[in-house]
Amino acid sequence: MTTTLSTCLACCHRHRAAKTASSSSTSSSSTSSSQVLAARHFRTRKSDSVFSRRVVRATPPAEEDLSAKEILEQVKEKKNNNNNRRQADSTDFMATFLTRRFGLKGGLAWLGLLTFGVVSEQLKTRRETREEKENTKAVAEEKRITVKMNESTSYEELVKGGGEYVQQGFLCGANVTVRDLDANETVFDTRKTNRPIGFVYSKTRPPPVLPYDVNESFSDERYVMRNGSRRVFTTTSGEDGLTFKDGSYVKPNANVEIDFEFTKVSIPPS
Fold this sequence. Notes:
Elements: H1 2-58, H2 62-84, H3 93-102, H4 104-135, E1 137-138, E2 146-148, E3 154-160, E4 171-180, E5 185-189, H5 190-193, E6 197-200, H6 212-217, E7 230-236, E8 242-243, E9 249-250, E10 255-266
Antiparallel strand pairs: 1-3, 2-3, 3-7, 4-5, 4-6, 4-10, 7-10, 8-9
GO molecular function: peptidyl-prolyl cis-trans isomerase activity
InterPro entries: Chloro_FKBP-type_PPIase, PPIase_dom_sf
GO cellular component, one term: chloroplast
């Protein structure tokens, strides 16, 4: 009886020990699993925080968004202003029309026509220059005639010009030599300085180096002059005298001799 009781007690102790061991193992396994889950949760939260930081950093601030929008609006306004501006027209309406109507062939045809016009104009100018030189002839000394214009003015033609006739508003260039006969000295001479005078011809407003009646004779039908003409005038300096660019001066009503030669007579540019 005693043996049976001790055996039962030993079995109970072993059962309790086994139960205690199983419960401790279960608790340790649950503890380890909870730790693993906690670690995973921590890593997940950490990665989420890093990602959120990256997103926040990549996202521009509100002020930057506003400035970018303002810049875009300014660019759009500039584009609209440029579009509203008047488009420059072609300098040659005919070329634009022909190119649009007939393509490249039409434009090339118009270009050829313009080239022909330019070349023909150059040929015409060269022909006129050649004819001017051919028609400009010096008058022999024995054939020179003194032409009296009025009581105080007369001239002798040394060279008969063959170029353009002198007309109102034409551009003129000339070599001039002025001698004061009373003082017997040369007051003004462009041939020495090689600097011809230039002026726009006006019948009523002579250049300062010429008396009124001499200037008026250039376009007078009776005494008209052409480019290349050269005459020696004997006249007076007039009531106002003659003034020159170099500061020299001829007193009023002095007897003077003016050697005048046209070197250029041309139509003014339009």
